[in-house]
Design brief:
Keywords: ATP-binding, Lipid biosynthesis, Lipid metabolism, Lyase, Nucleotide-binding. It comes from Saccharicrinis carchari. InterPro entries: GHMP_kinase_C_sf (IPR036554), Mev_decarb (IPR005935), Mev_diP_decarb (IPR029765), MVD-like_N (IPR053859), Mvd1_C (IPR041431), Ribosomal_Su5_D2-typ_SF (IPR020568), Ribsml_uS5_D2-typ_fold_subgr (IPR014721). Belongs to the diphosphomevalonate decarboxylase family. It is an enzyme of class 4 (lyase). The chain has nine helices and 16 strands. It is α+β, with helices and mostly antiparallel strands. It has two domains: 176 residues, Ribosomal Protein S5, domain 2 (2-Layer Sandwich); 147 residues, 2-Layer Sandwich (Alpha-Beta Plaits), CATH 3.30.70.890. The strands form four sheets. Strands 3, 6, 7, 8, 9, 10, 11 and 16 form an eight-stranded mixed sheet that branches. It has a four-stranded antiparallel sheet with strand order 13-14-12-15. It has a two-stranded antiparallel sheet with strand order 1-2. Helix 2 packs across helix 3. The mean pLDDT is 95.
Length: 351
């Protein structure tokens, strides 16, 4: 069929993707322009902490503007519709058919959103993959994974890394093919000892964050430690790349924990300053370090922009670490809530 002199192959359809959250070891904090990072970042995609998104589309003759409804966990969400409208306006030059099709978007998470687990990353990655699939069905043009990663970035910066599985970088640094526009999968360079990494996410609080990551990024524009942070992140990127190649858990722990505490230090030293950590977050951090020192087991923490703690360890130490978590750390979690997660292989098509 033709609409406004454009030929479309499909009048209607339904697509769906499950896309993972990711946990950054080198933190992305601060941006310029339209989702261009101030510093490079490095993360791995999770297996069980995912967003499942389905999109039904139907040609709507006479439509000239965006037309869509967004349902989050079965309820219509005006808040998410407003965010999605911003995203659609950023990508509409790539998907001109958005002017002519009515969409129904349904999305749900397997984990609490807006609590410091990367829900925006998994959500926009899933959405970008759905749009790319619809684009293929309507136009016959298949986008590359790099193009899809770039599209996801326009929704949420860290979403570009959730388009891929396992280990990924985002942001230009001293590595060939690294880019500010899309993520780069580096799994081929990673030592087997980091290929089975486990991540137990301790839910200290399920409450929505008091200060959003968007606000946190904006505060970096005039941050007194902005230049130093950019330098630190670039140095950590190069160090962590070597660590991942040689399988050195002790050096991994040093970088991961320094990055986590640096991120929250940047929040506290912003103007105005704030903190997302809770007293129980700090109790968990102290107990992890004490357990590691006493038992000589390589286990560490990282923390995204929220109070919840990611406990990282290898599969070979799973039994001892999970016993420790059950006994000593869960009492500091809301209703003893946690998610046992691990490195995942990336998004999957669900429809």
């Amino acid at each position: 069929m033709r609409v406004n002199n454009r030929s479309y192959l499909s009048k209607s359809g339904l697509v769906g993707y499950s896309s993972p959250s990711n946990i950054a070891i080198i933190k992305y904090w601060g941006k310029t322009g339209v989702q261009i990072p101030l510093n490079p970042s490095l993360s791995f995609s999770l297996k069980h902490s995912v967003t499942e998104t389905s999109v039904s589309y139907v040609l709507n003759p006479g439509q000239k503007d965006l037309c869509f409804n967004f349902y989050f966990e079965e309820g219509k969400s005006k808040k998410f519709e407003q965010k999605m409208e911003v995203f659609f306006n950023r990508v509409i030059d790539k998907f001109l058919w958005l002017h002519h099709y009515k969409l129904k978007i349904e999305s749900k998470n397997t984990f609490p959103h807006s609590s410091g687990i990367a829900s925006s990353a998994s959500s926009y990655a899933a959405m970008a993959l759905c749009l790319a699939k619809i684009h293929q069905q309507i136009t016959g043009i298949k986008l590359s994974m790099e193009e899809i990663s770039n599209i996801a970035r326009l929704g949420s910066g860290s979403a570009c890394r959730s388009v891929f599985g396992a280990w990924n970088t985002w942001g230009k640094f001293d590595m060939e093919n690294s880019s500010n526009l899309n993520a780069l999968n580096i799994s081929q360079y990673v030592h087997p000892s980091f290929a089975d990494i486990k991540d137990t996410i301790l839910i200290v609080s399920k409450d929505k964050k008091e200060v959003s990551s968007t606000t946190g990024h904006q505060l970096m524009e005039s941050h007194p430690y902005k230049t130093g942070r950019i330098q630190q992140a670039n140095e950590h990127m190069l160090k962590l790349m070597e660590v991942l190649k040689n399988g050195d858990w002790n050096s991994f722990i040093e970088v991961a924990e320094t990055e986590a505490l640096s991120l929250h230090g940047l929040m506290m030293s912003s103007s105005p300053g704030y903190t997302l950590l809770l007293p129980n977050s700090l109790q968990i951090v102290q107990r992890i370090r004490k357990f590691r020192e006493q038992n000589k087991i390589p286990v560490c923490f990282t923390i995204d922009a929220g109070p919840n703690i990611h406990v990282l360890y290898s599969a070979s130490n799973k039994k001892q670490v999970r016993e420790f978590i059950q006994k000593e750390l869960l009492p500091y979690c809301e209703n003893k809530s946690f998610i046992n997660d691990e490195l995942g292989s990336g998004p999957t098509e669900i429809i």
